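Complex record, two chains
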Amino acid sequence: MDLPELLQRAARREERAWGIFVERYGGLVWRLLARFINLTVEERKDLSQEVFVILVSRALQEFRGSTEHEFRSYLKTITENRAKRHLRRHSRRLEVLDGRLSVGEEDDSNGLGGGPPLIDPSPGPEQLVAEQEIRERFRGCLLEIPLTDQQIFWLRERGVPYKEISNTLGVPPGTVATRYFRAKEKIRDALKKSGVL
Amino acid sequence: MSQLDEILRELRGLSAHDCPPLRTLGDFLDGKTMSAQTRALEAHLEGCPACTNRLLDLRELARLERDGDPLPADLLEQLKGLVRSNAFASEPRASLRQRLHQTWAATLRALRPQPVAGLGFAFGGSAVVLLVLYLTGVISLDHGRMGQPAVHPAPEPAGPPGAIAALTGTEKRVVESVSLALADPGRVQKYVDAQQTAQPTLGELPKTLGQAPAEEATNVEVYKKAAPATVLVLAGERVGSGVVISSTGDVVTNWHVVGDAKHVAVVFKPDHGVEIRKELTFSAILIKVDEVADLALLRIVRPPKDVRYLPLGDMAKVQVGQNAHSIGHPKGEVWTYTVGTVSQIRPDYKWKGADGLPHRSKVIQTQTAINPGNSGGPLLNDHAEIIGINSFRREGEGLNYAVAADVVCTAAALAALHP
């Protein structure tokens, strides 16, 4: 059963398809919630149920993609929005084990959560121009860094441990450390040249 | 700082023109793109952090779907049962508090038509139910206050043995004192009293022999400025030092001090004396690590209002031969001050941690005495500005090293990528 068919049948609440769907994606939701270190196990269980209720109620029907990657991203957005909403409602700090939650993901645009964005990025026109210039310079610097080094840098910035980076990218741990150091040095130079540091 | 924060945050989302759709990135990840398209995507990714991050997200999600903490069996069954029980048609399963509320509501509803005698019985029955739940640990009295992180209990022993994992007797007493302070404020007073008599105060610390009066005055000033911003860091069984670098309660320490501990406690020095006090103990979260430079950035969950912090010094002005002051907690001797000189600045230094992991960074070599427990504490210039983070020593006399301040600055700035 390919993904579109599985999602279609699960959305129709066919028991067998739903069972396969839960077995395939239950672990992903569970592990995504584990990144929120403020959530208790009981809350993770409650939120997992909420996510799957949302999926079967409407989110499966509203999904417009067709690939595994697209669906995982969709699931990630729903799960994280639900967890963030829960933490906001309980006045708890939004603490995550790593930095995978970026500002852009706070908007809750799929309407499955609620609450205002945590940060209000509303710079003035002058600041926008200055930032644009810094971004351009930074991008120029990035072009000098090999893609693998950039990936190592961003994975480290998200708090992914060396061993996991090594496994994910297939690079030996020692090399990961060296390349991270190298990439960071270059990025630091770029920030210095841009007058940020 | 706010502008810097925003710029750094945006850097991660920096996108180039003509970003490919998610589907194409997924195909690229799976090796399904044609060679020309692959080359074009690779060229695009090299200049587009946003797409690089999206790609990494996809890769991470794929890995997360395969590996990691398994879904609890009972939850799996509950999720499968959602379509059988038609539970999806209603609201999601109520939280514990909601369920208790519902129990109360049902009880009260049942009470309305009851005569007075029945009311007492039903009310008593509910109270018994709640009492049983409480006693069996299903609920706790502070359940509703989970959102207000108070002082964490002393972290549980965890983590691999590091350079300072094996606690000395004094270090154990420090950990015990914090545990006691958090568990039983009454009992700890005796302990605090004992600490006060056991720990020498600053006035009792031996003065450096042969020191010129002016230099001595500087040293005293540095200590007075820096000690309130130097914290004791407790992470699992590990004890180290740390220094506050911002008014928002960001604390820099060594990565090998905190390791992968999820809960870290920091203890501030009281105005007088050096005793460990419950009210000066704060929980902190680990927000950033740099294993290569052996640095970690913590954030105090609820920092004190008037938290004292130290500025980062200008590394360009650091010279060999200048004074280098240090405050830390060597072998549990809390808030110990030492002074020496900068022996050398080494721009690209490699060393191995006690766990064998390679480290590399710009470091300051100093004569200033550093011992286990000093790790993570500040190395300071005469203006009490941070010029380094004391990190390791080598065998031999006066071969001590601190990760240079500009590396700390970069780490802290990059940490702003992740609010």
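Note: The CA atoms of residues 53 and 167 of chain A lie 34 Å apart.
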